[in-house]
Amino acid sequence: MTQFMDVHHGMKGITRDQLQAAHQADLAIEKEEGVHFERAWADPNSGTVYCLSEAPSAEAVQRIHERTGHKADEIHAVPLSV
Amino acid sequence: MTQFMDVHHGMKGITRDQLQAAHQADLAIEKEEGVHFERAWADPNSGTVYCLSEAPSAEAVQRIHERTGHKADEIHAVPLSV
C-alpha cells in the first residue's frame, strides 16, 4: 500500500457539503478496490481539490473516483511524507 | 488562520532525508510569520512536493519557503476539508 495525492481541477465554487458528499461517495465503495481515502482539501476559488489516499495503485484510486463521478486530473504516488 | 496547500515542482529524485531536512528548515523559522507546516508529501518520480500548512496568508507561507530555499510554485488556500 502506498499513499497517493490526487488533484481535481475545475471545481470552482465547491461547497463544504459538496466536498463532504463526494468524499462520502468515495468512502462508500473504496473497499472494492482496496483503497482508503484519508483526507480531502478544497480551494473553491481556484476550483482545486486534493485527495490523500492509501491504495494499491493509482489506477485503483482512479477507478473509485470515476465510478463516483469525479475523475482525478492528476494522481501522484507520494511514498515520502513527514 | 486558514489552511494552505502549496505545491513544488522540479524536485525529481528527492529523498526522505531531503524532504525531512526541508521540512525541519521550515519548522525552525515558521513562527516568525505565524505559519505552521503540518505535513508534507513527496513524489520523487514526478518531482512534486505538497505541503499542508496553517497560516495567516499565502504570502506568509511563501516568505518562509523562500527563506529556506524552496519557493513554492503554487499556493492554494484550502478552507474546506474533510
Automatic annotation (TrEMBL), chains A, B:
Pfam families: SCO4226-like
Organism superkingdom: Bacteria
Record InterPro entries: SCO4226, SCO4226-like
Name this polypeptide is given: Gualylate cyclase
